[in-house]
Design goal:
The complex is a heterodimer of chains A (about 350) and B (about 290). Chain A is α+β, with helices and mostly antiparallel strands and about 350 residues long. Chain A has two domains: about 230 residues, Rossmann fold; about 120 residues, Beta Barrel (OB fold (Dihydrolipoamide Acetyltransferase, E2P)). Chain A is about 25% helix and about 35% strand. Chain A is built from eight helices and 20 strands. In chain A, helix 2 packs across helix 3 and helix 3 packs across helix 4. Chain A starts with a strand and ends with a strand. In chain A, about 40% of the residues are buried. Chain B is about 75% helix and about 0% strand. Chain B folds into two domains: about 60 residues, no CATH class; about 210 residues, MetI-like (MetI-like fold, Orthogonal Bundle). Chain B is mainly alpha-helical and about 290 residues long. Classes of the chains: A alpha+beta (about 350), B mainly alpha (about 290). Chains A and B meet through strand 6, helix 2 and helix 4 of A and helix 9, helix 10 and helix 14 of B.
């Protein structure tokens, strides 16, 4: 297991623009952490500060216990995979991968073995003589990954490495990245704007917006227990409507919303009775049920229903609001039809502003 | 679509014909523009002075190597050629040494007034050569460089730098930052980055910049004439002595052909040796 990473009160300005605003977090050794957020949220800036390409204006970066603010990028024990792959175009695959070994003064007799080991790990065996431009995008990104892991760094950094690949390949390389990282036990930080990718690959997801960390939690919690409207909305799809809390007993709530009166069980909410908040329901948590058959129902008329193959995606009019529901693909509904859903109280999430 | 082409619509036939003929026509035009004067200068250099080449004749009456022999035997064309090469090589090296750091600063750093400076360095290309030469000659005279190789090389460098610099700035600008970051991320210091990342990727630009600078120096007359003469003689100054008072088209042709040969050879060698794929490969697949 490699060492962890700690970032404390990082702040970075571009002119007057605050790209990072007092960011702090810690990563345990061997963890795979994703920085997730829309473009311009500061995630790449944060990664570049960690790599040392950018200097922060305030705050500290620690690798393990060592403060590395003033260590130049070529002396930091971190290796980075770029979105553009950033392979050296004038060197063949073997020399690209060997570069880091030469720079780190690894004895030359070890090079061949280590390069070949790294190439085998990312399924590149036999391509050593090729030039980068003779490879496909997926292969190029694998070379970049091999070039990183061959130096056995403390920290692996990924800057949207899969954005330039097509969907199928993206999934394949994603699995490979995760397998290699697990096998070597290297701490990894992965930047992406793709929430599905973030959920699929990480131990921990750090959701960012406007230079701040909004939520830092494991994938399940990010999805099931978002701490804000932003996270609920950005990760996956969610029905979010304003609501007012009518009653509260412990963590059980009764709320008034455009979807009607609903009961909710939410351990993370700290809003008192009478407060205004937002109600969040995931489309897949809505289950069709006959009117009056169960409690906690939402009823309306189907506006559109789209057959997606694996599910039926529909929008239902409820008064002036709409709700989106994803239900089993075998249901047949016609547009305009009245429909009711039940929702388990613990699937109703109440969020502050 | 297919039906129309099959019926042999005259307009489509015409288009096809044009598509075939147009490139051909351009190539012919190009050949006429370049090759005919060249051919004539070869013929002129081979005219037999006994027989001459006068008006109604399309071709000379007889060919002989007399002019070549004369030029090679009776002028210092050999040493002039040596001078030209020496000066051109020094100029190219000096331009490169000056241009590299400047191009780096202009291409990769955010400097104030960068645009103004970029325009300013092109001035030697725009100003009339004679005007430049007179002022530069003055300055070099006061510095004591008149009639010296140093003076001529400095003057040629001044003219050559814009070519070199312009090309290098553009390629510094288009160098992907990611590749440089990747290098330092893997542990490369500034020296390794220069040697293993910048230089290989800049190589095609360095070569084309050098060719421009080299040829420019080989062909430079005014600067050499004003600063170098009488001590420093290069091929163009020899050539111009034949174009001046004792105008001799035949001998001028010989000298201009001699001037042409090394440049052509250089171009061909360089084209073969240098692979221009690096930059394209780096930028292409992103």
């Amino acid at each position: 297991m490699t060492q962890g990473l700690r970032v404390q009160n990082l702040t970075k300005y571009y002119g007057d623009y605050k790209a990072l605003d007092d960011v702090s977090f810690a990563i345990e050794g061997g963890q795979f952490v994703t920085l997730l957020g829309p473009s311009g949220c500061g995630k790449t800036t944060l990664l570049r500060v960690i790599a040392g390409f950018l200097e922060c204006d305030q705050g500290e970066v620690y690798f393990g216990d060592k403060l590395i603010n003033d260590v130049p990028p070529n002396k930091r024990d971190a290796a980075m995979c770029f979105q553009s792959y950033a392979l050296f175009p004038n060197k063949n695959v073997y020399e690209n991968i060997r570069f880091g070994l030469r720079m780190r003064k690894v004895p030359p007799e070890e090079h061949k073995e280590r390069v070949e080991e790294a190439m085998a790990m990312v399924n590149l065996t036999g391509l050593g003589e090729r030039r980068p431009y003779e490879l496909s995008g997926g292969q190029q990104q694998r070379v970049a990954l091999a070039r990183c892991i061959v130096v056995r760094p403390q920290l692996l950094l990924f800057d949207e490495p899969l954005s330039n690949l097509d969907a199928k390949l993206r999934e394949k390389v994603r699995v490979e990245i995760r397998e290699v990282q697990k096998k070597l036990g290297i701490t990894a930080i992965y930047v992406t704007h793709d929430q599905a990718e973030a959920l699929a690959i990480s131990d921990q997801v750090i959701t960012m917006s406007a230079g701040c960390i909004i939520q830092n939690a494991p994938p399940r919690d990010i999805y099931d227990r978002p701490n804000s409207r932003f996270v609920a909305d950005f990760v996956g799809t969610a029905n979010i409507v304003p609501c007012r809390i009518l009653e509260r007993t412990g963590m059980e709530y009764l709320v008034q919303s455009p979807y009607g009166e609903l009961r909710a069980v939410d351990a993370d909410c700290d809003l008192p009775a009478g407060a205004e908040g937002y109600l969040c329901i995931r489309p897949e948590d809505l289950l069709p049920s006959g009117k009056g058959e169960s409690s906690n129902q939402i009823c309306g008329a189907v506006r559109t229903a789209v057959y997606m193959g694996n599910l039926l995606d529909m929008f239902v009019d409820i008064g002036t609001e709409q709700i989106r529901a994803s239900i089993a693909k075998d249901w047949n509904v016609t547009e305009g039809e009245a429909i009711c859903f039940r929702v388990a109280p613990d699937k109703v999430r109440i969020l502050g502003g | 679509m297919n039906n129309r082409t099959k019926t042999g619509d005259p307009r489509i036939l015409m288009k096809r014909l044009l598509r075939l003929m147009l490139p051909f026509a351009f190539i012919m035009l190009f050949i006429a523009w370049i090759v005919i004067p060249m051919g004539y200068s070869v013929l002129w250099s081979l005219v037999d002075p006994q027989k001459g080449w006068n008006y109604p004749d399309l071709l000379p009456k007889g060919l002989a190597l007399t002019n070549w022999e004369y030029v090679i035997k009776h002028t210092k064309i050999g040493s002039a050629m040596g001078n030209s090469f020496f000066i051109a090589i020094c100029t190219t090296l000096l331009s490169f040494l000056f241009a590299m750091p400047t191009a780096y600063a202009l291409g990769r750093r955010n400097l104030r007034g960068k645009q103004i400076f970029k325009t300013a360095i092109l001035l030697p290309m725009i100003l009339p050569g004679m005007a430049m030469s007179i002022y530069v000659g003055r300055v070099l005279y006061y510095m004591g460089f008149s009639g010296t190789y140093t003076g001529v090389i400095l003057a040629h460098t001044l003219i050559g730098i814009p070519y070199m610099l312009r090309i290098l700035v553009v390629s510094f600008e288009s160098m992907p930052q990611d590749i440089l970051d990747a290098a330092s991320n893997l542990g490369a210091g500034p020296w390794v980055r220069l040697k293993e990342v910048y230089l290989p990727m800049l190589l095609p630009s360095v070569v084309s910049g050098s060719i421009f600078t080299f040829i420019n120096s080989m062909e430079e007359f005014t600067m050499t004439f004003i600063i170098g003469l009488p001590a420093v003689k290069t091929l163009p100054t020899v050539l111009f002595t034949y174009l001046g008072e004792g105008f001799s088209q035949t001998r001028a042709s010989v000298v201009s052909l001699i001037l042409l040969i090394p440049n052509l050879a250089l171009l061909m060698i360089v084209e073969r040796c240098v692979k221009t794929e690096y930059m394209g490969a780096a930028l292409g697949k992103m």
